[in-house]
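in:
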């Protein structure tokens, strides 16, 4: 999937270089298996690329669109985007990637001309490796994803049954060689601290990323944009010292810091009737459920207001405030017609959503 071996697929299929995903799939499915399925463990980038095509087939959506709709948008990770193999395709705010000093240039594996390029911009074709890597984000993005994945931070990206499958212990013959870890459905797992630590990482030329979620609830991540001459990933040098430093901390801030980097966002469902949990017109004085990302939370000083057809801004009584949900009581004096509800947190952008007010029973759905 990376480097000169990808030319084997193009040559065998008599197609242009670099090979397409379909060409790589046809080529790989014609190869003999290295071992009987289930007999041992081997990490496979090709397997993840193939899984991306399964997702497209089942969902009826392009892989990138599905990931954005089902994973990134619900988690409020609007900054995460697909990257480019080419320096000219660098996104706004994206770093430059470096090989070690004095590293030789390579024949490009991302260009038909195969011109000389530094390895970070010539070895890995991100169009080919779309479902096994190539997304651009920050350490804040990564830690937020980790804290949302299992529901530690609402709203959970997968249900409890699915997450349990992701970390379930696998047969010992499929454990990671030379390690107490096993590989679940997309996560490395190790039993420790009276529970489990789950993690994952990866590397491409000029970049190395890893995250950890420990049994005590602590998560951390790091991202590098360089390579070492000894080809040892940078995280191998820093993961233990970072853990030692974090383990020495006895008091952590208890306020939510993510909204400093992500403005609150309203979910597509917007405001629901709290009795029926359905969208539609709401009655004055009824209970409402507001869904979104980074809306509120403990000690977040959230205020909710509504502007009705009279253009008068009225405060909404907040009954419960969490990152993914706010429960509130609408003012009883609201006028019927089009309105707008806004959620505000001091120091952060407000978020609003249109609302229809109608004189109906609070428990009725229209």
């Amino acid at each position: 999937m990376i480097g000169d071996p990808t030319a084997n697929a193009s040559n065998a299929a008599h197609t242009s270089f670099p090979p397409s995903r379909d060409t790589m799939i046809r080529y790989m499915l014609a190869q003999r298996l290295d071992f009987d399925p289930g007999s041992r463990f081997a990490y496979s980038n090709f397997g993840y690329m193939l899984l991306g095509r399964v997702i497209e087939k089942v969902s009826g959506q392009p892989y990138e669109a599905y990931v954005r709709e089902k994973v990134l948008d619900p988690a409020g990770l609007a900054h995460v985007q697909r990257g480019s193999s080419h320096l000219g395709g660098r996104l706004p705010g994206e770093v430059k990637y470096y090989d070690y000093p004095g590293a030789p240039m390579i024949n490009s594996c991302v260009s038909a001309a195969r011109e000389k390029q530094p390895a970070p911009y010539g070895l890995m074709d991100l169009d080919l490796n779309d479902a096994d890597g190539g997304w651009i984000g920050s350490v804040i993005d990564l830690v937020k994803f980790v804290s949302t994945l299992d529901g530690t931070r609402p709203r959970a990206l997968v249900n409890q049954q699915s997450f349990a499958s992701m970390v379930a212990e696998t047969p010992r013959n499929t454990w990671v060689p030379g390690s107490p870890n096993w590989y679940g459905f997309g996560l490395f797992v190790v039993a420790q601290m009276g529970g489990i630590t789950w993690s994952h990482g990866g590397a491409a030329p000029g970049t190395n990323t890893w995250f950890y979620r420990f049994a005590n609830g602590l998560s951390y991540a790091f991202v590098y944009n360089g390579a070492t001459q000894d080809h040892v990933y940078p995280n191998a040098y820093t993961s233990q010292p970072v853990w030692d430093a974090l383990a020495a901390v006895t008091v952590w801030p208890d306020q939510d810091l993510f909204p400093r980097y992500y403005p609150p966002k309203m979910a597509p469902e917007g405001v629901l009737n709290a009795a029926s949990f359905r969208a539609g017109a709401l009655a004055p004085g009824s209970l409402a459920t507001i869904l979104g990302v980074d809306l509120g939370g403990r000690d977040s000083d959230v205020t909710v207001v509504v502007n009705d057809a009279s253009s008068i801004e009225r405060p909404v009584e907040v009954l419960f405030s969490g990152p993914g949900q706010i429960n509130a009581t609408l003012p009883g004096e609201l006028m019927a017609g089009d309105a707008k509800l806004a959620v505000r947190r001091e120091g952060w952008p407000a978020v609003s959503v249109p609302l229809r007010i109608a004189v109906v029973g609070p428990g009725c759905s229209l």
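note: Helices lie at 6-13, 21-29, 45-59, 63-72, 139-149, 160-167, 235-247.
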